[in-house]
Amino acid sequence: MRDVIILGGGVTGCSIARELSRYRLDILVIEKNSDVCEGTSKANSGIVHAGYDAHPGTLKAKLNVLGNEKMEALAGELDFPFRRNGSLVLCFEESGRETLQRLYDQGIANGVKGLEILEGDTVRALEPEVSEDVVAALHAPTGGIVCPFLLTIAMAENAAVNGVEFQLNTEVTDIRETEGAYEVLTDKGSERAKVVINAAGVHADVFHNRVAGREELKIIPRKGEYLLMDKNVGTLVSHTLFQLPTKLGKGVLVTPTVHGNLLAGPTAVEIPDGENTATTAEGLSDVQKRAALSVKALPTRQVITSFTGVRAHEQKGDFVIGAMEGHPGFFDAAGIESPGLTCAPAIGELLAGQVAEYLKAEKKPDFEPRRKGIPNMALVSYEERQKLIADNPLYGNVICRCELVTEGEIVDAIHRPVGATTLDGVKRRTRAGMGRCQSGFCSPKVVEILARELGVDPAQIRKNNPGSEFLTGYIKDGI
Amino acid sequence: MTKDLVIIGGGPAGLAAAVAARKAGVQDLLILERDNRLGGILNQCIHNGFGLHTFKEELTGPEYAERFIRQAAELQIPYKLSTMVVDLRAEGPDRVVTAMSRKDGIYEIRAKSVVLAMGCRERSRGALNIPGYRPAGIYTAGTAQRYVNIEGRMPGRSVVILGSGDIGLIMARRMTLEGAKVQCVAELQPYSGGLKRNIAQCLNDFDIPLLLSHTVVDIKGKERVESVTIAEVDEHLKPIPGTETEYPCDTLLLSCGLLPENELSGKLGVPLSPITGGPLVNESFETGVSGVFACGNVLHVHDLVDYVSEEASAAGEQAAKYLTELSETSQNAGQDASAEKALRLRGQNGVRYTVPATIRPDHMADTQVIRFRVGANFRDATIRVSAGDQVLLSRKKNVLAPGEMEQLVLKKADLEQLPAGSEIVFEIAQ
Amino acid sequence: MTEVKEFTCIRCPLGCNVRATLEDGKITEITGNTCPRGADYVTKELTDPRRIVTSLVKVSGGELPVVSVKTAADIPKGDMQRCVQELKAVEVKAPVRIGDVVLANVCGSGVDVVATSNVAAV
Fold it and tell me: Within its chain, how far is the Cα of A147 from the centroid?
């Protein structure tokens, strides 16, 4: 029997796994997708929120400020891209000042540092491309941006190095409570553990309610659509620009990403199906329309891709974190919607502490807190490039020309702990295919490298989950 | 490393430029090619139809490429394969090329002149803003072409094609012949972006319908494409509700336009045309950065490789001429001064752009080919070239189509008499 | 009986729109072509339509798994699919050079299928 099973390999599950790997415990993460970071964690704004949004006293408020504070040190320890670029909440109408002040007060109550309300002209002096219609803004210098993929993957890799096992492509079908333990049934078999941690994102209510024996949680999936723009407009703004709600409804953000693109979105629409990640013509035009309010000219001709994320909104509105009453050993990390990405480091620490105490686990003296990322040929200096190629000539072979990703980086991504087995897995770890040609040139080459390194036929290589193979056969098969 | 001339790209443009430069006496030159063989995209264009102008016979892409590769070999033109140029910058008179490969590592070449011949890329799904899921099974036509023609693999069984660019039309026939079912080609515009003969021999021959004024409004399928929904569009190119038809299929190919790949040119600070996406060049195919020339699809997207070769040969000769003048004057004299006096070419009323964008009559040969594209279909139209009130040229055309490149020849004698800095306007007069 | 048929000539990239007037099935007039090839194309298209077929055949022991091929001359249009079917069974050994015959007399047409690219042996 294992000590801990974590349901879900998203940013929350991976953070909990990494924090728990500090202890002498036998830990398994079960993830239904073919990679970690495949659900809510892969399609969001990538924002490290300052912490003025949530009502004081809520878990969201407490963990946001804490998570924000931890992010910088964590980025250093685990080597993922994070930048404290600061955020601005733009107010377009005089009547909005009251709401802006309320946000400011809320932020102060939550312990957010450095908040200030700026007049329109000061905002434009700070951020010249901001719309002339902006009358004031709340400036939060602690706001930041992070790569959600690499944050999640870094935590998963570090957890794996410290002994956590990951079982991917495995769907949990049922959970049974047996004396002092749980049996987790999957489509691949079953596992038993003393503790189950529910970090199942949009499906967390199903597992919680199954163990509770009644309908206690209800996750209402919400979908948000985004537009991602080319790096050549990535410096249009340097801050993350939020909006106060306007006549058009809830605002959308415009932000640089940590990789240098420009991102706009999201919409917010409740949907019955938590797996519905389709974009819509209405949604995408809505994002364009709303985002255009924030800046003088939104470079919509520079859009290189669009995507939809699904968020796990719990109907009561706050995170559900901790032990489930009456069911010892079952812990929730449910309803983790925005600012869940920011909170992830804090949620991990909080839950790991609770679980360690429950299991009376001891800390490992040999815990390895550091993880080194894949060398990034696009970003390093000429001399570093020289050295990398000298050590491994594969770093001289460019595969993705738009993002300058080499064969060395891709091979590294495949052979790391919890390594990439799919095209999307390579893409999120190395950025191959994330550029302006959107993998047109590099995908056949990445498929070839994946097949070679994994020792399989190219026809078995998938975009992500089973059924997403690229190749359907050989020429003339059908004649 | 130093070189008189570095040619970035070993496709049809780079090869023709190299051959011409060598024949014009350039000894110290080098081709840098990112792929593992010369020939560029021609290697995967295995269909016939190339070379009628250049070789007076109909060749396939690889055969056409081979003719130039052989010439380059006979002229002993050096080249490096699997080599990516990752940076390009100007340092005084030097054009510094940073290249990288598995074999040679990373290194810099200080070049006196450079020919840009990097080609183009295809417009992706994201740039087209097509809504729906993002499953496997959505490829640009060129990516599918590579899978089929180079790797011998099929990227799908049942196919819908969006966009009637030539690669899409060609792939409709290729996929059909290799055993896939191509259901239709949808084209947003009321006219095709491809050559008429490709509609005849790639679609009509195989009874594949071409749906003009149609576009994809939804893609279904979470892991793999399961269906594509196509709707008719109105005159503003907006989908008309109620006209949707869902096509069950496993593959969507995109053939919606090509974009010159000028990331390197941008790094060097070469001014680009907002219309073509390629460098603005003068009559010598020289960009705004002296000693840097451009030709082929990196300059503007061509319809026929024969014209690429012709243009690239001219660019190669001009690079050679530049090097000769450079050695004679020991510095680059006077480009800026003469640039101010240059005649400026502009398209209007249906003519989208011209290549070149400027002409210095004192630098031009007796005649100069001007290439351009039109923005819509025209019948029985006249292309008029004028400077102020003076009509320089007027040419009748039965048919003008956006998918086809047009060309006219201007005479030095006509241009010499124009005041310095005059504007020459190309337009359609119906 | 007078009949007018329209064709897009495929002999060169110009793609002329050529019209043939037929009296009782016999061509009496051809218009719209800019060169003699247009008239020849339409005449053939009405009596014996033919096409060049390009495809691929498998290669063993080569740097690439397939080599591109074409019919050395045009073959009857109706035989295009059958030609590709016959090529399905063909496998050549690397090295392959441009012009190598990979299949002689395809579909009994008297036309050979030849390689159009070079594939080196590995």
Answer: 7
Residue pair B251/B181 in contact (Cβ under 8 Å)? The answer is no
What CATH number belongs to B124-256?
Answer: 3.50.50.60
Give domain limits for chain C: 2-47, 54-115
**C81 in contact with A, Cβ within 8 Å:** yes
The architecture of the domain spanning C54-115 is Roll (3.10)
Q: Cα(A345)–Cα(C105) distance, rounded to whole angstroms? A: 71
pLDDT digits (tens, 9 = 90+) for A241-295: 999 976 656 789 999 999 999 999 999 888 888 888 999 999 999 999 999 999 9
Share of chain A above pLDDT 70, in %: 99
Length in residues, chain A: 479
Q: Rounded to whole angstroms, how far apart are CA atoms A344 and A148?
A: 11
Contact A40, A300 (CB under 8 A): no
Q: The CATH number of B1-122+258-333 is which of 3.40.190.10, 3.40.50.1100, 2.40.100.10, 3.50.50.60?
A: 3.50.50.60
Summarize the confidence of residues B187-206 as an average pLDDT.
94
C66 CA to chain A: closest CA distance, Å? 10
Percent of chain A with pLDDT over 90: 95
Provide ipTM, 2 decimals.
0.95
Assigned fold of A87-141+220-312: D-Amino Acid Oxidase; Chain A, domain 2 (3.30.9)
CB distance from A281 to chain C under 8 Å?
no
**Full-prediction pTM beyond 0.90?**
yes
Based on the residue annotation, tell me whether A49 is a catalytic residue of this protein. Answer: yes
Q: What is the DSSP letter of A40?
A: G
Give whole-number Cα distances, A421 to A37, A415, A464, B274, C58, in Å: 13, 9, 8, 40, 29
Which tens digit of pLDDT belongs to each residue from B101-121?
999 999 999 999 999 999 999
Q: Does C110 touch chain B (CB under 8 A)?
A: no
d(CA B405, CA C17): 18
Residue pointed to by tokens 């295009």: C80
Q: What is the CATH number of domain B343-430?
A: 2.60.40
Domain ranges (residues) in chain A: 2-41+149-218+316-359, 87-141+220-312, 382-460
